[in-house]
Amino acid sequence: MDAQSSPESALAIGRKAADELAEALAMAGCKLPSLSGGFPVMGRPHVELGGASADAVFALARWIRERA
Q: Number of helices (H) and strands (E), helices first, in the chain?
């Protein structure tokens, strides 16, 4: 992202990134309930990964390890 982008476009980019990650995680059978695009941090897009159940995190870790 261009450092001169507006806060609105940085927020939109963060939301898009969060949506894409949520879709990819769903393909792996995982969901982070509080995953969302957050307000820009230091003018850059930001994604709030938030919390997840231990079961979801174990499943995600297992999925990553199987493909690493």
A: 2, 2
